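Q: Mind making up any chain with structure tokens?
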Amino acid sequence: AGSMAMAMGGPGGLPVEPYLLGLLLGDGSFGQNIQFCKPEADLHEAVRRELPPEDEAVDTGRGGLRIRRRRKNNERSETAKALDVCELGGLNSLEKFIPSNYLFAPVPDRLALLRGLLDTDGHVMKEGTTDEFASSSPRLAEGTVFLARSLGAVVRVNVRVPQFTNS
């Protein structure tokens, strides 16, 4: 997979551009079709900007984007192939994680990945001094903590178990 990763991708031979991976880990669907589920126009532009040249993002009609090959040839998108290289292909929200080559990537790549995660699943609190990140995946949460700490952030972890009431 190493040589394939070098050919596919991002800076430092990463299979997916780090910011795009952060966006997709935060709000992507990794089924047969790769989808990005956030409706914000600025994030749609970011996804389109970060895609490999062979891929395009088309509106789903439900506020999201579907990533596919530009040229129709029955092949999976380069993004889907790269997610497979990262062992992320087909994972659901509870199973997502940050691949180790991203956790130990150069600082600019780690920072871009963290920005993508925070742009989708994060929000600013306490007059702009604190960012909060939430994930349903324990492995993604642990990886995000490691990533943020590796960049010098002070991190506090709160585990919340959702409670549902039937009415």
Notes: The beta strands are 28-30, 34-36, 55-59, 65-69, 122-125, 130-133. The helical segments are 2-8, 18-27, 41-50, 78-85, 100-103, 107-121, 138-150. Residues 1-11 have pLDDT under 50 and may be disordered. The longest strand covers residues 55-59.
